[in-house]
Amino acid sequence: MIAPDILLDIAAIASVIIGGIFAIIGALDRVSKGRKNELDSTETRLIDALKLQVETLEKKVEEQWTMIEETKKRVEALTQENTTMRKILQGRDVETVESVRRTKEILELSKENSKNIERLYQLIEKYLANNKK
Description:
2 helices, 0% strand, rod-shaped, 133 residues
């Protein structure tokens, strides 16, 4: 049989070993919790940084859309102005067309008046020639 002193020594050694195992497990648990907390903190900071970056990019995108809309309006205005100026320069605008029409009418009337004046002049010459005789 085993002596009682040896049993006590074995029990003491076993309790020290078991206590050491529990101490190591506790220390590892604390280390893993610390690392987990560090990871959680890092992840939280990363998420916050990414949220800030997304908000900044969303603002930039909104500004770009505003600029695009303003540019579209400006292009439409310039296109309209260009069309108007081309019509004016090519003489196809309403005022120019009307002016040209009236000018042609006036020229026709002038030609007609010139013919009438010429006939009147001829009649006066005939009258004067007949009165001299």
